[in-house]
Each structure stands twice: as structure tokens, then as C-alpha cells.
Amino acid sequence: MASAAVPQGAFMVASPYGRHAIGLAVAAAVGGFLFGFDSSVINGAVDSIHSDFALNDVVTGFVVAIALLGCAVGAMIAGSLADRWGRLRVMFLGAVLFFASSIGAALCVTVWDLGLWRVVGGLGIGIASVIAPAYIAEIAPRQIRGGLASLQQLAITIGIFLALLSDTVLAGSAGGADEVLWWGMEAWRWMFLVGVVPATVYGILSFTVPESPRHLIARGRSDQAREILSRLVPEADLDRTMSDLRTAIEADRTSRSGSLRGKAFGFQPVVWIGIVLSVFQQFVGINVIFYYSTTLWQAVGFDESDALTTSVITSVTNVVVTIVAILLVDKVGRKPLLLVGSVLMTVSLATMALSFSFAEVDAAEVTLPGVWAPVAFIAANAFVVGFGASWGPLLWVLLGEIFPSRIRGKALGVAAAAQWLANFAVTMTFPALSNWSLPLTYGLYALFALLSFFFVMWKIPETKGVELEKTESLFTTLAGAR
To answer: Which end of the chain is more exposed for a tag (fewer CB within 10 A), N or C?
Structure first.
């Protein structure tokens, strides 16, 4: 009788099957680490790049943002490649591209070859951003699928933190990012070169983890799939799991859901749900906090020398609240966390908009007087908490759950590409928007946070504890019904 009181998720984590699934999910989530590392490593190098290559602000901003275009292309091609080649071969391709980019960016001679290597790295990151959630969703037991899928975002936040930390350590060791550190290379070049370490780890892991059972069954390799599943589900459930997968895959092949194409502007409605979720995650402006945090922290009273340290602290906060989300997602559910996160982001962003309406501008420098400086600082960190505990990790959970298995790779690629393009749009437009009106800028992000609340209420069903094949039908039915 006592065992019945143990939550299924806790039992699954403690079982050999759950532990094996956790190990595979952690390995796949290293792709998320590359994602986060690449997103933030440029922060410590950008001023040196600007001065060493004598760039204007427009070109500097383009060098920062161009990697995001590579990410969008990488995400688009990753889905088709993953469905054709398998998840593991595409993981290895992403690792090779990021490895090459880290070396090329460190040894660049001109800004143009730096931009080229940034695009190459972006291709690798875009690939990793698709493969990790697809693979995790396909190997995770339903009782702990939400927590395991959230590891992608945790890995992203850890990548952001370690990128900022390594930038700080390298710049401090050299006496400045533009100073020579080792082997005649400036510290900012070593910031890029550090990326070869996680890229190598990711590449090695692609040879050590098993292929997705769903992909193997779809390719007629049922014996291999059964062997892998025998380590992920109890013996008593093995035959039923194999039968359910075969049935779902066959249904995908014979139904309209087996294709991305549909009447809703070229895509099936369920694909549009993934696209809109991805765009909302970026249009709330989260990357403004990580890409342009120096300006924000100076405006609320920090010295320039303290801005990077403050950004590191913010990234730690992001890691901590992501861990909270992992612990809650399979207990509380996806939808409640998303709704609470939307509310907290809306309130905090609106508070930032209000605070900056009292800003004072002197020689193009923005400062906040009196009480508005700490109010904006608290609101910015509350925004990070709201995002990190909800939309940050839960987007990857949902993107792994909503698409039919036959198109999961391709549909995830489209949704992830939309996310990267939205990221690019926010990154490129923030400087111009902020120069025009910071209250309007943060007010716009608050509006998108508010709209995300109503979208979740309208379009997102609860999938906590539901078998993966059934979550797909929930979203497909809901999308078709509306």
C-alpha cells in the first residue's frame, strides 16, 4: 500500500529505466549548451572586435546577429536531415560545424571571415537546437518527459553562464579582452576558441548514445528499436510500447498529418502552433537582457566595470529558476506554468516600461532617477525569473510533444527556424527602438507577453503524464478544430 503513494515520476526517476533515460537526455542536451554558449560568448569579445577591425555600430551589430541567420538555416535543414539520416548523424554534423567555427573565429583575419565563421557556427547551433528536443521527447518515459525535455533549456542557461564566466576569466587574466593572453593571441580570440571543448564533447556523445527508437521503427529496424526500448521501459510494457509506436507511425504515413503542408498559409495548423509558440518566446525580449544588459545595468546605476559581473549573476538566476521549472513541470503541468509565466513577464515588462518613462537622457546616456532605478532592476530580474521558470524551458517540452512522429524533425526545424528569425529581429531592432523610446520598446515586449497568455489559454492543452503519441493527437485535433 505504501508504494501506491509514491508519485509515478519519482518512481520512474529511481528506476533503472528512468536513470538510463536521464543519462541519454543529459547527453542530448549538450546541444543546448552549445546553443547558450554561442549566444553569449560574443558579449566579451564584441568591443574588441569593434575596435580592432575599426567597425561602425551597424557592422558590429550585424557581426553579432549574423550567427542567428545561420541558426535559422541550420534549424530548417536539421529537421529533414534528421528524418532522413537519423538523429545521431545530424548531432555529429552540428558538432563538426561548431568546432570549425570556434577555430575559424579565433583565427580570423578580417571581419568578413569572422562573419563567415559565425554563420558556420550558427548552422551548427541551429542543428543542435532541433535535434536535442526531438531526441529527448522520443526516448523519455511519459512520467518524466517534461523534466527531461526541460534539460534543453537548463543546458542553454548553463552555456550562457559559462560563456560569460569564461569571458570574464580570460579578459581578467590578460588584463583586458584586447590584450595578448597566450601564443600571441588576444583574450577575445581565446573566448571563441574555448568553444572547441563543448563541441568535441557533443561530437563524441553522438557516437555513444543509441538512435531514437521511433526513427528506427520508421526505417524498418524494429529489432534495434526493441533492444533500445528494453532499457527505457519495463519488460511488461515493452510489447505494448512497440505496438503503439508502429500504429502511430503507420497512421502518420497514411494520414494528412504525415506532411507539413496544409491549407493554413502553407502549413498544417499544428505546425503554426509551434511557430507561434517559438515567436512568442523571443518577442517578449528575453535576449535583450543577455545581449544588451550592459546598457540596462548602467542605466540603473552600475559602473561599466560591474556590468559583466551583474550579467553573470543574472545568468545564474536564470539557471536556478530553470531547475525550479524542471522540478515542477511534471507535477504542476505545462499550461499552468506557462500562464503564470506570461502574467509575471507582462507585469515586470510593463513595470520596466513605466520606469524608463522617467528616464533622464544626457549626452545619449540614459539614467533612471530616484526610486525608478531599483524598481527597473527588480523588474528586470523578475522578468528573468518569469521567463526561466516557464517559457524558457517549456517551449522545448512542447515542441517535442506536439508534432506527429513522421514530421517531428521537419516541423521542429520550422519552429526552431522561426525562433531564430524572431531572435534576429529582436536583436537587430532593439538598438533603434531603444534610441527612439525605451518605454515603448519594453511596452511592446509586455504586449507580446500578454498576448502569449491568451494564446496558451486558447490553443495549448495540458499534456502532463500523457503518452507522446496521444499528446500529438491532442494538438492535432485542437489545431484542426480551431
So the answer is: N
